[in-house]
Amino acid sequence: MNHAKAIGIKLIVIGVVLFSILGIFYNATLGNIFIITLLVTGIAYAIGDLYILPRYGNVFATIADFGLAFVSIWLLSSMFIEANGQIIAASLFASVFIAIGEAVFHIYMKNQVLHNDDKRNNTHVINRNFQTEAAEETAETDYIRLRGGKDKL
Length: 153
Fold this sequence. Notes:
This protein is mainly alpha-helical. It is built from 5 helices and no strands. It has one domain (about 1-120).
């Protein structure tokens, strides 16, 4: 249920950004914007949020989401929307706004969605509180230990 909620939030954020930029400035149809939104959301959620975010953290996931959003919006917009070279600028602006939203969304993902998955998947117990042990040994105590404690100094 948490993943469905997270995908819904991400879908709304990307949809609002794409409708604001592509719908207003490029007269794209609502159907085209919805298809682009679904594809960008699916790609960014699978790669950026489920793979990169847990392994590398928020900064790398936000940078990856920026790159993924830019390339996917640029390619999909050039396929669905009949715009000239100006679509690169629209893809860049949309990617910047999506990346800002993604930085905040990743905090939600870490606290609410991925945190719950860690609890459910980690059933084995690993004690990660390591301690070092230190002792002082002298030649006399080593000699006594080797002799079996018979010769005490």
